[in-house]
Amino acid sequence: RPPRSTLFPYTTLFRSLLNRFQEGQTAIILYAGDAHTLVPLTEDAETIRTLLPSLHPSLMPVRGSRPDLAFENVIEMLNQVDIQNSHLVWITDGIDDQQVKPLQNLLSSQRHKLTVLAVGTPSGAPIVLEKGNYLKDTNNNIVIPQLDLAPLRAVAEALGGQVLPVQYDDSDLERLVASEEKDQGFQRSEERRVGKEGRSRWA
């Protein structure tokens, strides 16, 4: 198969996540220049799978990269159902340095756990669209995302989270699953002592 890091939509990655997380609620928020809820919180993983083939850059009418809008969207969603302790899985090809501080300010007061699945390489690669054309920016230049992990790590630290570069052998997802299982074991221990809190995931 082609390297997973060059595929858009990231359907293989989403399917792998769904296959590994069989319990709890999941939502999917997409973003570019704005943010859009593709799937609200649900336990119906099969419905999510049926929507994955439709993932495409053309779903987002505004070009750009505004992860802050996506995080605002998901925080509002979780607050509406009173979920204060969830696992946010952020799939991204990177952010600019100037985006770090606003994201830190937005996330630092939250209790959610954050895992960043970082897609790409330092040298970068173009994003191939469904008709074989390349994704272009507002100036009609081919977008070649270059992955810089430092800004992502700075944001993840605001939630005590982790950054996992996407790997061909799925070792990134295995580390994610191991981390989730460890946290769930700790949470079960805490629940026996102080009661139960809601949990969910966002990708």
Helix content: 25-40%
First-to-last CA distance? 23 Å
Uncertain runs = 1-9, 185-200
Strand portion, in percent?
15-25%
Number of helical regions: 6
How many β strands by DSSP?
Answer: 6
Report the sheet with the most strands, covering strand number, pairing sense and barrel closure.
6 strands, mixed
Rg of Cα set: 17 Å
In one word, what is the shape? globular
Order of helices and strands: HEEHHEHEHEHE
Give the class from helix and strand content and strand pairing. alpha/beta
For the biggest β-sheet, the strand order reads: 2-1-6-3-4-5
Task: Please give the oligomerization state of what you see.
Answer: single chain
Mean pLDDT: 77
Please outline the helices and strands:
Layout: H1 11-20, E1 25-31, E2 35-42, H2 45-51, H3 67-80, E3 87-92, H4 100-107, E4 113-118, H5 149-156, E5 162-165, H6 171-194, E6 200-202
Parallel strand pairs: 1-6, 3-4, 3-6, 4-5
Antiparallel strand pairs: 1-2
Helix pairs in contact: 3-4, 4-5
